[in-house]
Design a protein that fits this description.
Shape: elongated
Number of strands: 27
Distance between the termini: 64 Å
Largest sheet: 12 strands, antiparallel
Helix content: 25-40%
């Protein structure tokens, strides 16, 4: 291979990974269309230096189905044509996972790469260039010497000389790491002729000064580089250009470039993320602002992401408390790590609501499997613990039984996570803000009718946004008592609501005692809301049955209101889970399928007429069978 002395050092690369959205049956198609031609092209072009990141899932699958892939990779690595990067085994976002998981995932992938590629990686790939200085220490302990970081983060640092054209040295608590500039702006690289591509890259760098960049090619672009698009094969045109005399660029790898590295700038790059990732999670449209936005800022803006993050942190604590049983702990940690995939937190903007639901079901399935692995048989017992689960400064009540988890929030006194462990599903994960089970409302008849018609109430419902107090727990009876005070109507009539949860493996019983504490009669509608993640668009269409006015009615879930309802049954045929709702007093029931969030809302309501200092009792039962 001839030596070149040119100002532009170009490192081409790609990632070999599978999305959690893909069924395993589709892995073969992805491999045949993208990765098999890539390896063949590299093998036949010895002068084409290339950088690869191989995810853990891809390695596992390729070991079982295409061991010849690693035979070629090992040869390409041995002749120093291909560099294999390290990273997290399950493509995690390093800034939001605990240090122990950063090290664990990195070492797990390193072990797999040493086995299959024959060499320990020195560099590391960060999905979405999600960065935080605190990860340097973890990477140092894994023997990682450098990372790839989006050029936007270099520029956003605002430091003279740090412009994304050369590597820099980053430091945190006395530990250092090298950051190599990464360019992921070429999403459709095949539409740009190779000579134009090189000119565009060079124009972004200072004239006459050496510059280096890594261009990571998107997975869906790989096939376009190997096929004739009418103007020849793109990669052949690039290699023909590279073979000319006085060429303006050199193809290399990060490891080769850094081998004889000069002294680089010391820089301070704060937490940030690549602004070129196509996601709706970003709080701004300005690329420089996004590049300075920490991943935590993105997560705390979204209640559904925050709940997923909180669950991940909680399960991490449970898995790492396991002592003695190394096999069980290993299984729990690996299930947990699967729920740290970056696509679960940075959902691509192009994803449909069905794909988002599939991703979140995948996440909760992994988390619940990890949680079940951390429960030691014979030691685990049902409990209710007060714990600040979602890190909002208020303690939530975590009820854990053999078959279900019910997490109760003081805000609205609602169940905000409802896990059915037999099917590994959180049935309150409706990807919306105001979700939960047993959300209480007291309102006038006009607003109640607006809700039944699928509209928002005009007034502010009492209790729905109230902070419930006096959480009293009886673990022996698995009961939780809450109370809330509210003011209703133009006269601000004081109302007291006492709420008692009784948790059983078969379901939940809730007792309400509503008291009129005003000196005037109270008249209104008491309504209970339940949001269940039962998709009206599931391939196996869910069905419902309602017993109303002594008549049983059945059919698909659709918007409807019934009076004098004895019970309601909802069947999720996708998982075989059945929910039955009944009460001590027949109610008016409204069922509304929500297509935007793939969920189903159920409202139970009663007319309330109370004299001063009088109270009324309602009992609601939610039974579960799988």
């Amino acid at each position: 291979m001839k030596e070149k002395t040119t100002p532009l050092k170009l490192c081409l690369g790609t990632t070999c990974s599978f999305s959690p959205l893909l069924d395993q049956d589709a892995y073969e198609d992805v491999y045949s269309c993208h990765y098999k031609p890539l390896i063949s092209m590299l093998y036949n072009n010895p002068e084409l230096n290339f950088t690869l990141y191989l995810s853990g899932l891809f390695i596992e699958w390729a070991e079982r189905n295409h061991d010849e892939f690693f035979m070629i990779i090992e040869e390409l690595v041995a002749r120093k044509q291909v560099e294999v990067l390290g990273g997290g085994y399950y493509n995690p976002l390093y800034p939001i996972i605990p240090p122990a998981d950063r090290v664990g995932q990195t070492e797990l992938l390193t072990t797999a790469l040493r086995k299959n590629a024959g060499k320990r990686p020195r560099g590391l790939y960060l999905p979405a260039s999600a960065w935080d200085p605190s990860i340097i220490s973890s990477l140092n302990s894994c023997g990682i010497e450098y990372i790839l970081l989006d050029r936007f983060l270099f520029k956003a640092a605002g430091q003279t000389g740090v412009d994304g054209t050369l590597p820099v040295i980053l430091e945190d608590n006395g530990k250092t790491i090298t950051a190599v500039p990464l360019d992921i702006s070429y999403l459709n690289i095949h539409t740009t002729a190779p000579d134009v591509f090189i000119q565009e890259l060079s124009s972004g760098f200072p004239t006459g000064r050496e510059a280096v960049t890594v261009v990571m090619i998107q997975q869906n672009e790989l096939q376009n580089l190997f096929t004739n698009n009418g103007n020849g094969v793109w990669i052949d045109a690039l290699m023909e250009l590279y073979s000319r005399e006085n060429v303006e660029f050199e193809l290399t790898t990060p490891a080769k470039y850094l081998k004889n590295k000069p002294q680089y700038f010391r820089a301070s790059i704060g937490a940030g993320i690549s602004p070129l990732i196509k996601t709706e999670s970003f709080p701004d449209t300005d690329p420089m602002m996004i590049a300075r936005t920490s991943l935590k800022q993105i997560i705390v803006r979204s209640p559904s992401l925050m709940n997923l993050y909180a669950k991940m942190m909680y399960v991490h604590a449970m898995a790492n408390q396991l002592k003695g049983d190394k096999s069980r702990k290993k299984n729990a940690r690996e299930e947990l790590w699967q729920a740290q995939n970056h696509l679960l937190y940075l959902v691509p903007a192009a994803q449909t609501i069905q794909e988002i639901r599939k991703l979140r079901n995948y996440a909760y399935r992994s988390l619940l499997l990890a949680e079940k692995s951390s429960r030691i048989r014979g030691i685990f017992s049902s409990s209710i613990n007060a714990y600040d689960f979602d890190m909002d400064g208020q303690k939530e009540y975590l009820c854990q039984l053999d078959t279900i988890n019910c997490y109760v929030h003081n805000l609205a006194g609602k169940i905000f996570e409802f896990d059915i462990l037999a099917v590994n599903r959180n049935y309150v994960d409706c990807v919306s803000v105001d979700k939960g089970l047993f959300i209480d409302h007291f309102m006038d008849k006009e607003d109640a009718q607006r809700i039944r018609d699928g509209h928002k109430p005009v007034g502010e419902p009492v209790f729905a946004h109230t902070l419930y107090q006096d959480g009293c727990v009886d673990t022996s009876r698995m009961e939780l008592n809450l109370r809330a005070n509210g003011f209703y109507g133009s006269f601000l009539q004081p109302i007291l609501l006492r709420k008692q949860y009784m948790f059983r493996n078969e379901g939940i019983q809730v007792q309400y005692i509503l008291k009129n504490e005003s000196p005037f009669p109270l008249s209104g509608i008491f309504m209970i809301e339940l949001d269940l993640a039962i998709s009206p668009e599931s391939p196996k269409e869910p069905v419902m049955a309602v017993y109303t006015e002594d008549v049983r009615k059945e059919g698909p879930i659709e918007t409807c209101t019934y009076d004098d309802v004895s019970w309601i049954r909802l069947d999720d045929q996708e998982t075989g889970t059945r929910f039955t709702l009944d009460s001590n007093e027949n109610s008016t029931a409204t069922i509304i399928p929500i297509h935007d969030t793939l969920s189903t809302k159920v409202f139970l309501s009663w007319n309330v007429e109370l004299s001063p200092n009088f109270e009324t009792e309602k009992m609601v039962f939610l039974k579960i069978s799988c």
